[in-house]
Records
---
Amino acid sequence: MKFYERLYTGKSIGNPRNAKRRLFFGVGCGDLYVISLARSADQLDIFSASLLKQRHFDKKTLVVVGIASDRQEAIGLVERMLEDAGRAGMEGDIRGYLQGEMERRRRKG
């Protein structure tokens, strides 16, 4: 599991570091929602973190770009991502925007 460096978090997520740790180890994360880069042709996936506990779920390739406390808050984060992508000139291409940001930071680092 990888986390986007500038992880989007909902206002109700008090400590993002703690939320990331909970997701990574799968402990006490049933109240969290995850926004990740989609594994299909879609741009993003939104799902309950409780799915991460399922044995068949492939966490190795998961790229988490946002964490929220409920589905409504997750949708609000996606709206923020859409606005950020639009400001960067990539209107409607959230996935491309986030991947581009990750690549730029990888080159800098």
---
Amino acid sequence: MTDGSSPDAVKSRNFFQLSDPHVVVAVESPEKMLALMQDDDTDKVANILCEPDEISGTPSMGRTKICKKEFVNVSFTRTVIRNVDFYECVFRQCLFIKSQIENCEFHDCRFIDTNTHKIEFKGVYIDPISFEDCLSPKDHQNIGNHLYQRLMNNSNDENQPVFGRLASFEFNRWMSYQLTYEAKRKWKTNKSEAIGLQLNSLGRKFWGLWGAGVFLDRFILCFITVILILSTINFSLRTMMGLPDVKIFLDAVYFTVITLTTIGYGDITPSEPWGKVIMAGQGFMGFFLFALAASIILRRIGL
């Protein structure tokens, strides 16, 4: 979902200011701001400083809808946006610093190079993927961490399980960025703490590779990969492990699956000490993986 813009583009400007303040027009009235947003004669709202504390639609007269509008270099800083629905809108180089979004809907919208520092959501319908091109992982770790935490909380409160899983996955990813950033800052003053933070970050990256406890398809793919790797190890080391019955690679796959699932038919067993140690480790790994799979399935069905 890119169109030539990149989060790295924000490096050339102050991310907490509008990109070109010299051409910005201040709008003091919430009615005028809504009129600009709803103007059918133009598909763009650009270079605007929204000064009203609140922009609110009128639910009694039908929800206020903003369709196919591009917002460029617009500041909604410290603004409460309430009862407004956005359809196929793009927010580019905008500011939502300490904004509060309440009872709004965002359908097929995108946020590009946009500052969402300390944004809040309440009763909002919004797909976390809308923020895919919003922030730079190298420069805005804390902003992304806060953003996806708020999206995750909103999705859970609004019973939006699909959005909740996406937000949870992204929150884990941005936490890893934040921990890496903190580790680099700590390296000169406290190397042991920096190493701990970096290990935590790597753990979260590995957890994300497995689906971060929310994506079953990622988990299944990684589980199959683990089976193939362990089968290769068991087949290559079959003599050292004392596995004379493992004659072909398919035998190794069968033996590995039986070990990981802790079924243990007993038709193939290691006779050497190292083989028993390795199989015990693989059995423990299998118990952990199936417990993780059960957790993912239970989360998906809402138990």
---
Amino acid sequence: MDILVIVLQVLLSLSILVITHEGGHFFFAKLFRTRVEKFYLFFDPWFSLFKFKKGETEYGIGWIPLGGYVKIAGMIDESMDTEQMKQPEQPWEFRAKPAWQRLFIMLGGIIVNLISAPIIFWMTLYTWGETYLPINQAPFGLQFDQTMIDAGFRDGDLIVGVNGDSIETYKEVANPILFSDTCIINIVRDGENINIQMPHEFYRQVLANNVSPLFSVRIPVVIDSIAPNEGAALAGLNKGDRITAVDGNSIFTLTDLVAQLDGKADTTINFTVLRANGEPDTLAIGINSDGKIGISTLSPKNWIKLKHKDYGFFAALPAGISKGYDLLCNYIKQLPMLFTKEGATKVGGFGTIGKLFPTIWDWESFWFNTAFLAIMLAVMNALPIPALDGGHVLFLLFEIITGRKASDKVLETAQTIGMILLLALMLYANGADIFRAIFD
């Protein structure tokens, strides 16, 4: 059932994005009186699931859910309709239009995707507002991944700024840490202000070590409830007690506790606890066959307070634009990672996209992920690769600058090469997802 919910969310999200992207091409084609022969969601080789014709355009749904397309008359595209190109040029064809009009037609999908993300954020902020963790809501500091510890951080440090500038939320920290070679993280450690210079190309280490997340809010292990007849209850552990060490090894968070219990099933070991009255104590607690002692701990909500901000209809607009712009900039910064050895191993297809969506249907999460995918689709389509919009734009810019139009033979060859490259990339990305699902 969880998989079905994820699949439905991915299909709906991508369908919305495909329709709006192809709708951008369609809009500019119609604006410049260029004939659009087909407008399809999904691909339809040999047959379609549904179709109808209105005016000069056939609308339909194909049976291969890998995208969609508009077939514009007089254009060399994925349909590879070379026979049409052998006929005399017609005034309503793409090839008959001025280069600047053809440029807008090709940029239409990218433009709509870039507009879609801020609009989605505008509506989500107006509908749900924004909830976040303020930087000052970490009373016990932060817990860091080992890669961050190797860079100079310590558990308990509190991040308070970047390059001397104060920050309000932790999301302002990740990108400087990963992508800025001049990034200095300002922290407070044991009441002392300390600056940490991030290593060169730190993102390579993060990718190589498969780090996620870089850090989390440090929450102590304080007992909330105890299961009867389990090790904790039999040893005399009480609600409100805090576990501080296991078998002589200091712990602070639930993650630390789980790590210490690993491999110790069906044994009895000493736990150091701080009683609710402040007194230290040592208890011999039996661990069951599942590697547990029968406790649940206080929720993080008892230690940290999230902040919520509501937006009016008009106030949400600039906030949505800002959010879309930040997401676009961050995604562009991440692109060079794809061309590194570490980044290439993280490339994924539909399985990776599916991991963005939760196993329950949550509309706020759905629309955020759809906005993110809109940005991703815009950037990827803008790449100057033949068969992508960016490839067509490259030829059109060459024509505008030099006044020389590429021949149909050159365009056909480029389109063929581009389609082969895209197919290979799609096979690699989805194959990587399958490989990771089997062996990870």
